[in-house]
Amino acid sequence: MGAYILRRLLLIIPTLLGIMIINFTLVQFVPGGPVEQIIAQLQGHGDVTEGFAGGSDAGGPTTPTGGDDQSVGSRGLPPEFIAQLEKEFGFDKPPLQRFLDMMWRYMRLDFGESYFRSIGVIDLVIEKMPVSITLGLWSTLIAYIVSIPLGIRKAVKDGSAFDTWTSGAIIVAYAIPGFLFAILLLVLFAGGSFWQVFPLRGLTSDNWDELSAWGRVADYFWHITLPVVASTISAFATLTLLTKNSFLDEIKKHYVITARAKGLSEGRVLYGHVFRNAMLIVIAGFPAVFIGVFFGGSLIIETIFSLDGLGRLGFEAAVARDYPVMFGTLFIFGLIGLIVGLLSDLMYVLVDPRIDFERREG
């Protein structure tokens, strides 16, 4: 098993490199880089240089704008100023050199600093991480806690009225877009037109610092209820039906018939024999579910519920062409995704020790 883990770890390097090469190449053909963004802002709004030149909110490289920013923006930017901008952003170098320099910094875990904010990429990610962890972790946990028992029950009651109406319910829930369901929750339970049960925005209340320990826990769950429900609703269908079909396939096998013939109880057959084999495919889907909830639906959910997480961070970085944030987060989360994929294989072995990846590859 050690050799297999080593091979998978070594495979992460070319895979991650390929991801970075493809995205870096695509960005070269996208018009409107950070220099163009600054030039457009300067020509349209003379006072935006404050944020770029080290204002309290944005920060970034100091630009030699001279004295009057408004006069510079109105009469056109001199070539020397544009050349200085390109040098400070590093665009005076050819793309290949910029890519190699970037990857060398990433190998040393140096992800640089945001172009437009006086904060490092790692610090920025850590600042936004709690929101995305909240959505991803709780949504995945709730989906598994509900879907696995429900899927097992549906497999046992296959073809019954319970199986029919639960299948209809989860398919309808799957068909509802997450953002539409989130808006519905806001209208119904966040003071839209009906009940003011949950807060409208944010992850904590304004008086968070004044609350007791139990008060903070209650306040935290009070705020995350609607976003977590909205981001979890579509995951129930996939996991439930996957669990049901997996159990149905195992129940029809001969070893289950033999176990029942020996007089074992139905619970012992299901959870002592079928469960281990049927759960393999469900466990294999865990990384996709977690990563999908963690990154995929976070942007819309965070926007609707006014949560400042990684989804909004990535979107704003793409719009502003903040390349250090774009590529830094791509590298970090690409690496996390590949490692989670390896962990799912190790979970295979943990659930069923009969699986031997080294022998299969040999």
Automatic annotation (TrEMBL):
The keyword Cytoplasm does not apply. It comes from Marimonas arenosa. It is a multi-pass membrane protein. Residues 51-73 are annotated as: Disordered. The lineage of its organism: Bacteria, Pseudomonadati, Pseudomonadota, Alphaproteobacteria, Rhodobacterales. PROSITE patterns: ABC_TM1. Keywords: Cell inner membrane, Cell membrane, Membrane, Transmembrane, Transmembrane helix, Transport. Belongs to the binding-protein-dependent transport system permease family. The keyword Acyltransferase does not apply. It is found in: Cell inner membrane; Cell membrane. InterPro entries: MetI-like, MetI-like_sf. The chain crosses the membrane at residues 9-30, 133-152, 164-190, 220-243, 278-305, 325-351. Residues 59-69 have a biased composition (Low complexity). This is Microcin C ABC transporter permease YejB. Residues 129-348 form the ABC transmembrane type-1 domain. GO terms for cellular component: plasma membrane. One of its GO terms (biological process) is transmembrane transport. It comes from the Bacteria. SUPFAM superfamilies: MetI-like.
